[in-house]
Amino acid sequence: MKDILSIALPKGRLGDQAYKLFADIGLDCPSLIEPGRKLIFENKENGVRFFWAKPSDVAIYVENGAADIGVVGLDILLEQKPDVFNLCDLGIGKCRVAVAAKRGFCDNPDRSLKVATKFVNITKDYYASRGRNIEVVKLSGSIELAPILDMTDVIVDIVETGETLRENDLEVVSDIMPISAHLIANKSSFRFKADRIGELKQRFDERK
Amino acid sequence: MKIFTRGEEITYKLDELYEKHGYRRFKMNKFEEYAFYIEHKNFLKSENVISFGDLDGKLMALKPDITLSIAKNADTEKASRVYYNENVYRSANGMREYKEIPQVGLEFIGDIDIYAECETILLAARSMAMLGGRYTLDLSHMGFVGAMLSSHKLSEKTHAAVLEALGQKDGGEIYRLCVDDGSDEDSARRVASLAEIQGSFIGAYEKARALCTCEQAEKALDELATVYNFLKSADAADCVNLDLSIVNDMNYYNGIVFQGYLENVPRNVLSGGRYDNLLLKLGKSGGACGFSVYIDLIELYRSSVAPHTCDVALIYGDGDDICAVEKLADSYRASGNSVVVTKNECDVSAAKKIKFIGTGAEK
Q1: A65–B245: do the CB atoms touch at under 8 Å?
Q2: Does the pTM of the predicted model rise above 0.80?
């Protein structure tokens, strides 16, 4: 029997896409997509164990060795800077991190810029590289509310189609970076399950 | 019989191993001047240091690191072998709180040569073997990585970013950084392929050899091969890998660097390397290499969570004469048993449980 490879997937649409990638290369686990309240799913024949995690927690599970590998957005990797191997870009979940503001916004360099975001580190790095003083307001969700209610001048958030921004009379001011989902591995697991993780990475690379 | 915790047991064995190789214990003060750590903050695993004002107003710090203090105090005119078994104080693994972290390690400092380096890495391998279970000791060479990057004339910022991406085995990012900084695609691909060089020593070594473009890189690989052959002749090379994603700050580390991993422990439990550049920064000549073993991680992931155990649990009830209970417990202790006196037998796991009745006992 193969060693079990433990895989953390992000809950939601990105996780569904990621599972499909694993299933396509023969690492399927049918119980994962059955409805129910189970938390961990195993297919002993394939030697895999999957579990769903909150997207921002996937890297934490991998870094602490609860999962050998995981799928996580580049935005989360750059924000949390977990001590893991970033093995490859899976080419799914493509979108961008951008600065957005109320339509017609014009930056006033006389004072600090007020920015709402859940990506505090990405935001600080971006504005530091441009030499712009900022005041960051950390939020956990519904970031778009901040400029609408005049709490901040701009937001830094993930933009996929831009539809939510348009519906709320907001627009992208500048793009910070493109992002997508990456395959990450625990640094210790990678050494003890090198063959399995290496083969997996190679198969994902070949699909690109 | 003295009962050790897992960490104490390992510490005891490691101390013994190092003493057998002629290393002397280095005992040190818990404090150091704060400015010393600020000057060398890039050498530290964490910038967060506990500081306090001394009685004469000098700003002091609780030691966050041992190697810096040993290097500062070492007489580098001769070769000195020292080991330590001390606690350090710093934040751990990105946590927002300070921890007292037990560390064991050794340093070989001063007039050292390739033998000193080989012996240090052999002791790292033997330390890993002593921890129990499957392990790997992964080697890399900052001189090799440095030589591969130097031909690209990368800006300081890109150089640092490439090293960070190499530490994450992020070949895609290395390629992008090199191309954005003006490298041609072929050379960028060559640098990115460093991230793929890993695995059992011989195979990975051949791949690294194929990438060599200059004398400095070849010299670094020759040094790695000498160390590997030394380990092999000492029967300590079975779990030794080459992994070029192991990178340390080049301002301090200039030669071989290494890390040890244990199966089912998510982070490296041993870290070390050759750090002549630190001595240079401290205004000293000579060379230095050494390593630390993170006893806290081994205790955290390798100790059982079994309840407190003893030879005898003496269980008494409400209304029992506690003086008589203690007298009976002492009689068992006199025959060499460890005895826990308790009202609740679930509190302890004991080889023998004895219930106290009146002035005697029921087994």
Answers
A1: no
A2: yes
